[in-house]
Design brief:
The structure is a homodimer of 521-residue chains. Chain A is built from 14 helices and 20 strands. The N terminus of chain A is likely disordered. Chain A is globular and about 75 Å long. In chain A, the strands form five sheets. Chain A has a seven-stranded mixed β-sheet, with helices on both faces. A five-stranded parallel β-sheet of chain A has the order 8-7-6-9-10. Chain A is of the alpha/beta class. At the A-B interface, strand 4, strand 5, helix 8, helix 14 and strand 19 of A face strand 4, strand 5, helix 8, helix 14 and strand 19 of B. Strand 19 of chain A pairs parallel with strand 20 of chain B, so a sheet runs across the interface.
Chain lengths: 521, 521
């Protein structure tokens, strides 16, 4: 990545109309994983006064938005969905070029993003997501009259969104955090992701278009172009999180990044919440009868799941736990064959590949962990990485807790247990995770029962006879979980409840009709 | 307070049966505010291994409680309510002796505590507080089948409760935090409050009795006796918050105390949430026509509110804002006369009185702030403090933000504005508060409208034509608010939602009927 200082004619996507740049902007280019070479397009890097300017505009827009009927937000969310849909193939082309993810994978992600925006629009229109509650007065109550109490969720204030490298659409500029924050009534300031700046700018322009069409205050949404790997890249995030106008932060990414923001926000003069979704190990347990009956089919699904997007998913199954025996050996053989015959895929960036290799090295150093399969070698150019299947015994897993840490990329550890008891112990020792899965035949249920009990205490979602990847966008979904999967176990990043992260309850006591919030009349 | 090391025959209230003391315990005595002298009763101070022992028992009880039907918790909560009711007058006598609060005030608080326990019992029996949600499967959906998703709130784990000095019953050993945590399914470890150890032990014994009667695991509730002002007093809280078995913390008290726990819990290897309710300035706005029509009646109510429990309430109105003129002068005169003729009341402790005086000194140093009324002098013995009414101009309030900080004790500042605009500006500059109040006649509504809009952004509860003290225990109540009133604006310490602090959502995906949690079948 190159950092250059030179004048560019105009912003290709002028999504922050309140801001006029005083100086020739610094620019950067990002690298295509397919070639390993910088892409020709240049992107601005937001200077400090732009961060300040968009945050102040967001604060103004917050007041403006509060006074608007909810229909305004519904129109905005639907407008954003339509604008993104209207970008067509060009969005997918640029996103694929920047991330190395396939166009079909990105098309699915784009549809998911649009679906999310519409789901929140419907929820806002319905209104029950703001949890209105009414306690009737009882003026005649003995001792003291009981007051009239009416509660509703109100927005916290402007939200800073840090998108994910691995979901350039669904967890980025106009992804779940942005959609749920706007639905809540919070203006959004997005820190543009340095690995997909073109995608980010294109989506930001689509959002800006929808902001104008819906007749919204321009400060309702801003996008801060960011990248180049220099000091400024880090500084933009810090300036944003510590800006007095910002009331909450949404983050999807690494454990290290999430906890750094968590600490930064907690150290502010006025601390604000950070909602960090940081990935996890997502264990998959396959019980003996399920393994015996459909081991090959499960191996096929599991292979697809852990190599999906080259393993760069927060819900990637990192550990698969089976009971030793002929079923396990047959299963391991099918899985290894699938891995061995697969081509190497691209990684999102060179840095992510390096982190993966360094983590893989640490895992490989653990005595008793063996690499048992590896995909076909990488091409000479581009940022490629073959998938790797490792194997160890449950006793090793319990002796080396580092094996519970996420390895972001195409690696999975097959853990072989001696018996059901050892499997149960492995479940009981799992750290917090976004999700876990259990494959169980009807005849496995006696073993599945205590396993379910142990896992449900440790995860945000428990999947049966399916895999942890593929998070359905649906009201009851939970994409969250105990630390270290997230820093806020009581929340979810997907599903209608995701909106509550950006809200707080307010109670009106004995309010005259004319002074009540509309929805409480 | 005296710190003594000597053997006591037996714990008067052996509420931690799992723990056998290895050494002669350290003991302390607390001081009665009525006399300023130590009370004869001696109280143990929990040693480090007792903290460890009760936390481990709580972890065990957490697993046990999870596996129990919810009816067990309902029985426990109702049992605790009944046990506390059965303590009768002796509880009020000891609580009054330790806190200096009046017996009628404590009787009300006791009834409130019992009501809270029963409210949560009813909520658990009903089950909707756990927010079950169901998204039906659609196996025939194009592209991919839609899974069956079922969400429910589950408990976080053992909760540490730090009670309040000023509510020895309702926000202490078996108060709102304990009741809501047990309702959520979380075992509770209470750090006994050093200012009311006899009250705490008596309530803890009543809870212990209910735990046994309901057939619960003994680790479901523990009380750590704590006091004496030495190193050990501080250490007990630190050991508790940093114990690996503890999953969340409830705190009611000072800003300093709450933020210290917040930082301590955030710095753990595995950070946990602290829900700190820290008090605030709770401004009261009286609009001109309301002032003209019923100024004297409002002055009477306001006097009662700010001197209730000698001003030692987190919802005490700290600022009362009026528009200058004859109405304001008449109002100020009535208020001053009430203050001048009132007797001095006790403070909870000498340290709380010292903090109050030190804070009052700082406020008094602000140029343009005048003391305009003061209650009758204190008696020679005991920990008494007269109430004080201060007065300043709105311009001074806006120039010296320190006037927005809480002054815990019997002081209130009358703020006189030049006009409605200045009053509106005062509202817009308010920091986060638990509550605010507006007195407005029908004819004041044009002014009340923007005032309401400004205040609702800054408070957890907005009261009309009434005062902020007297927090109704009712499902829709919100006792929370933006920082610095609390560190978790999205939560409430009173009302049914208080239970959600101790919960997190879990989603079951495609779970076979037999493996689903009971309430999701």
């Amino acid at each position: 990545m190159r950092l250059k200082k030179r004048r560019v004619a105009a912003h290709p996507f002028p999504c922050n109309p309140g801001y006029a740049e005083p100086m020739p902007p610094a620019t950067f280019r990002c690298v295509s994983p397919f070639t390993g070479q910088p892409i020709a397009r240049e992107h601005r890097i937001a200077p400090p006064d732009e961060v300040d300017s968009v945050c102040l505009a967001a604060a103004e827009a917050f007041e403006w938005l509060w006074a608007q009927p909810r229909g305004r937000r519904v129109a905005l969310l639907r407008g954003i969905a339509d604008s993104i849909a209207a970008l067509g193939e060009s969005l997918l082309t640029i996103a694929s070029e920047e991330t190395g993810l396939s166009v079909p994978r990105l098309a699915g992600e784009r549809d998911r993003t649009i679906f999310t925006l519409r789901m929140f629009a419907d929820a806002v229109a319905d209104g029950s997501c703001f949890r209105p509650a009414f306690d009737a007065a009882n003026p005649g109550r003995a001792a003291l009259p009981k007051p009239d109490l009416r509660r509703v969720l109100v927005p916290l204030g402007p939200v800073a969104v840090f998108g994910a490298s691995n979901f350039p659409l669904a967890y980025s500029t106009a992804g779940g955090d942005t959609a749920s924050a706007l639905a809540a009534g919070c203006p959004v300031v997005v820190k543009g992701h340095p690995l997909h700046p073109g995608t980010g700018e294109m989506v930001a322009a689509a959002v800006g278009e929808a902001v104008r069409s819906a007749g919204c205050h321009h400060g309702v949404f801003a996008y801060l172009p960011c990248g180049g790997g220099g000091e400024r890249e880090l500084a933009i995030g810090q300036e944003l999180v510590t800006h007095p106008a910002i009331a909450a932060v949404g983050f999807t990414g690494s454990f290290k990044g999430g906890m750094a923001l968590h600490k930064l926000a907690g150290a502010r003069a006025s601390p604000i919440p950070v909602f960090a979704e940081m990935g996890s190990i997502n264990p998959v347990f396959i019980l003996p009868d399920a393994l015996a009956r459909e081991g090959a089919a499960i191996a096929q699904k599991l292979f697809g799941s852990f190599t999906n997007s080259n393993g760069q998913m927060c819900t990637k199954p990192g550990l698969v736990i089976v009971q030793g025996g002929p079923g396990a050996e047959a299963f391991a053989e099918v899985l290894a064959a699938l891995v061995n015959s697969a081509p190497a895929q691209t990684m999102l960036s060179d840095r992510i590949r390096s982190s993966f290799l360094s983590r893989l090295h640490d895992v490989g150093e653990v005595p008793g962990v063996d690499a048992v399969a590896r995909s076909r070698p990488s091409p000479d150019s581009g940022i490629y990485q073959p998938a790797i299947l490792l194997r160890t015994a449950a006793a090793t897993l319990s002796r080396f807790p580092t094996l519970h840490d996420e390895c972001f990329g195409p690696a999975m550890i097959l853990v072989v247990c001696r018996d059901a008891e050892e499997m149960q112990r492995a479940a009981a020792n799992m750290p917090g995770a976004l999700a876990a899965a259990i494959f169980a035949a009807e005849s496995d249920h006696a073993v599945a029962q205590p396993l379910t009990a142990a896992l449900v205490r440790r995860v945000g979602r428990l999947v049966f006879n399916g895999l942890t990847t593929g998070v359905e966008v649906s009201p009851a979904m939970v994409h969250g979980g105990p630390y270290p999967a997230t820093n806020q176990p009581h929340t979810t990043a997907v599903g209608i409840m995701a909106l509550e992260r950006w809200c707080r309850p307010v109670c009106y006591q004995n309010a005259p009709e004319g002074l009540l919030a509309g929805e409480l009349r």
